[in-house]
Give the backbone structure.
Amino acid sequence: MAPALRRAREGLGAQGARVREDVLCEFARHGITTNSVAPNFIDRPMLRQNTSSEYIEKRSKISVMGHPGQPEDVATAISYLRSIEAKHINGHTLSVNGGNYMN
């Protein structure tokens, strides 16, 4: 197993950013990119089960898009990052948040 991957699996807490950088550098040499997706306010069954409809409506009204994102939005972002079109995107976190900033 690659040393960077081993360190990532062991979990290094505050050193996580360094692990990500190590993984990025080590795997980039082999054409493997290291990216992540950060979804925010996505409409899914757990949201509907654990959140009041009033809260969902309130968040939707203040949302730039006017509604929560859909699971397909997250899947599309992941699909893009896995595609050949994203071959030179590396070390990026793609926010799937409909234009809302995460605090």
